[in-house]
Amino acid sequence: MKLDQLIQKLIPHDEKFYSFFEQSSQNLIDAATLFKELCLTQTAADRDKIVAQIQELEHHGDTVTHNIFSELNATFVTPFDREDIHSLTSALDDIMDHIDGSSSRTSLYKLKGFPEQMIKLVDILHLSITELYKGVTLLRTLHKAEELQRVFQKVNEYENQADAVFEHAIADLFENEKDPIQIIKLKEIYVGLETATDKCEDAANVLEGIYIKHA
After folding, report:
1. Residue 69: pLDDT above 50?
2. Given pLDDT bands bounded at 50, 70 and 90, which one contains residue 6?
3. Considering the entire predicted model, what is its pTM?
4. If you write DSSP's letter for every residue of 86-101 in order, what string do you get?
5. Which of 134, 145, 152, 194 is a Cys-bridge partner for 166, taking CB atoms 3.0 to 4.6 Å apart?
């Protein structure tokens, strides 16, 4: 074990980071849950209301991100490496940004309905974020190796599923949609959702790196 890692284990450190990460990942679950509801909306008014709620969650996520970076600058001894804290914070923030951007486009583009493949992609994203939340809560108890490995495996599986759904959705879009403007609108939303699942895997990779360093 490296000397700096030994020091981190022996010296009391700030516990706030665990709470911040749990807040951030719970915020993502809330946003993904709202996006699932968004897919079931029947009117533009209902859609706009949910989009506004997701935007509020994005603002809250930005606040948590700012708090983490402020705490990072003010804390001498952190529970794990500073670069890992920074990377995990950024990855979680990126997921939220892509969820918010995708939901906003459904309103801005006046989407009339949600294709089946888009709903599948949202469901997969929600599942991936739920697993990611489990991984974040396990930061406090990094000795639970089997549970952590299950999280990493599931997030990877969901990312692969999202890739397959995305590719099929884009192929179907180009094959069957005749309106080029509609193709552009839907494709941008698909890309945002698929990128969000990619960012989930990025966050899981950071968690796995933390586990390996501190196992």
Report:
1. yes
2. very low
3. 0.91
4. HHHHHHHHHHHHHHHH
5. 194
What's at 195, amino acid-wise? Answer: T
Query: For the chain, how many structural domains are there in total?
Result: 1
CA atoms of 72 and 136, how far apart (whole Å): 17
Structure tokens at 120: 């599948």
Q: In this structure, what CATH number is given to the domain that contains residue 98?
A: 1.20.58.220
How many other C-beta atoms can be found within 10 angstroms of the C-beta atom of residue 153? 12
Do 92 and 17 contact (CB within 8 A), yes or no?
Answer: no
Residue partners of 160: CB distance under 8 A and separation at least 6: none
Helix 180-214 vs helix 116-137: crossing angle, to nearest 10: 20
Say if residue 1's pLDDT is above 90: no
Which structural domain, as residue segments, surrounds residue 106?
Answer: 3-214
SS3 157: helix
